[in-house]
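Hi V.,

Quick status before I head out on leave. The structure for the redesign project is tokenized and pasted below; the design run finished overnight.
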């Protein structure tokens, strides 16, 4: 890797997966510790003025964007301003910006898979923030790659998988939607995709734009939960006896979560040669890491 890579959010689950994967291929990242209050416009300005990397991977707000149950609007607003400033800085210093985004920019009203050409209409606050961040990056930093991921699964205890497993350990019955669809995307797979994109950008390929990636085999939260529990039961006993199907409309997050969130991944395949991997195959490793730190 010829480019000097800066990773914001190196301490996040996706940041750690990227560092692990990079180390296997002798690819290193400059991963500065964030200020106590987190990265903001002022601290980012100082950081990039001093370090001048050639590419920035912005995972600074990974947990809030991909794993948190709820985030305060003022916190999101500060993150939005920081992304806008980061895009300005990357353009000014001629730095490549790799910015993650999510299926949440869509409203989930169509049953077929969303392509990069479909118009985003975000439902909830998180999706609206992500969409505005995307627009800032496009407008301010031409040398960018926006990566929209499906349902990202990681080993963090307070993340989406962790919250599900915690409920499974204390409740005998769980309810999950059986009429909601998306692409489970294990964190190691998301890291693989980011690294693959960086490698081609390192070859001076001007492949700027927006790309979708989600794990192979779209599914429902119900089927995903059942697959996770089947794997968990090989490792330990859990309290939950059954997962009961529930309609999307009856779920507490129905107003914010797209019912149909399947992403079409043809563009990233044709442009970068990145093929979707089966999410089921990654569950044993993911759960092993989760339980090792319980």
């Amino acid at each position: 890797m010829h480019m000097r890579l800066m990773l914001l959010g190196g301490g996040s689950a996706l940041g750690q997966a990227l560092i692990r994967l990079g180390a296997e291929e002798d690819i290193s990242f400059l991963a500065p510790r964030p200020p106590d209050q987190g990265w903001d416009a002022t601290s980012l300005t100082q950081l990039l003025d001093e370090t001048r990397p050639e590419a920035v991977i912005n995972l600074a707000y990974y947990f809030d964007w991909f794993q948190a149950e709820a985030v305060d609007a003022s916190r999101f607003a500060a993150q939005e301003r920081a992304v806008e400033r980061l895009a300005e800085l990357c353009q000014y210093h001629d730095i490549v910006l790799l910015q993650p985004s999510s299926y949440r920019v869509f409203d989930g009203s169509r049953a077929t898979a969303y392509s990069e050409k479909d118009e985003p209409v975000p439902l909830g606050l998180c999706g609206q923030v992500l969409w505005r961040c995307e627009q800032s990056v496009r407008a301010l930093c031409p040398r960018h790659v926006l990566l929209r991921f499906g349902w990202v699964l990681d080993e963090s205890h307070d993340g989406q998988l962790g919250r599900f497993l915690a409920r499974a350990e204390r409740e005998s019955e769980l309810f999950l939607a059986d009429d909601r669809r998306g692409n489970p995307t294990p964190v190691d797979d998301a890291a693989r995709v980011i690294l693959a994109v960086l490698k081609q950008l390192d070859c001076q390929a001007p492949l700027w734009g927006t790309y979708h990636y989600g794990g192979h085999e779209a599914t429902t939260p119900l089927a995903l939960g059942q697959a996770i529990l089947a794997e968990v039961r090989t490792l330990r006993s859990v309290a939950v006896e059954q997962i009961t199907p529930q309609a999307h409309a009856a779920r507490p997050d129905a107003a914010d979560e797209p019912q149909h969130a399947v992403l079409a991944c043809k563009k990233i395949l044709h442009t970068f040669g990145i093929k979707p991997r089966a999410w089921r195959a990654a569950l044993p490793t993911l759960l092993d890491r989760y339980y090792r730190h319980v």
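Above is the designed sequence. The mean pLDDT is 96.

G. will cover questions while I'm gone.

Best,
W.
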